[in-house]
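[Automated response] Your request has been received and processed.

Submitted sequence:
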Amino acid sequence: MRRDSIFYKLFQQSPTLLFELLTNPPTNADAYRFDSVAVKEPKFEIDGVFLPPENEGAGVVYFCEVQFQKDEQLYERVFAESSLYFYRNRIRFSDWQAVIIYPSRSLEQRDIYPHRSFLNGGQVHRVYLDELGDIRQLPLWLALMVLTTVEEEQAPQEARYLVERSRQEQAQPSSSVIIELVTTIMVYKFEQLSRMEVESMLGITLKETRVYREIKEEGREEGREEGRREEAANLIIRLLTKRFGELSEEIRSSISGLTLPVLEDLSEAVLDFTSLVDLQAWLVAR
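Generated structure:
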């Protein structure tokens, strides 16, 4: 599971998320910008960097490392990268801090004695996701981070809960962003399933899918109404085929002939169908 890319998506959408993990976040946390940087000679790639606003004088730069695999020299690398970048940009920053995110304490490197000053001095913050608390009691953004650590048996239930909660809370940014991130996490977690199968697992309707939103955006152009309808019909046919097997030509033709508003209704009804009999009854009723 490519958790690094998921966390970077989270930080790009909500840079302040990092500071929700800290006891004493900066007062201007809302103004920070998430970025990745490179340091040459020797070359280091630092993927998670939170840069303070440039119009407020020298500020504190935060380095973030998401570590889901055992690395017995992680701290050596992180502190070398951070110190060198700070040295090369000393005029821009007044201080630096680092945040290391682990799924649990078991993945932390064993020999930490050489780094005792950093680790015990308040400059380095170690976060263990399994110690943040009940996923259902956490703020949505933090809950998304914890979802990456949930076992496969429990993950669908917790993911559906977060999707429904995002709809009810009308979170900012919009629930569609939260739903997209939940879906991405689950696609990575269940690599054997297609995206449509994951969306069906989560109870996501056609209107909420990324494909549908892209189609709708394209459909704003004049003359694209028919294209939107065809794309929506094809998407529903693919989803039904995944669930119930190959559809008859009669059923495919019936779905292809529906108007866009009826296709939108069908996309929601599909989630309740248990067999093709339910689908046929639904089509006959319309």
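Summary generated for your ticket: The radius of gyration is 23 Å. The mean pLDDT is 85.
If you did not submit this request, please reply to this message.
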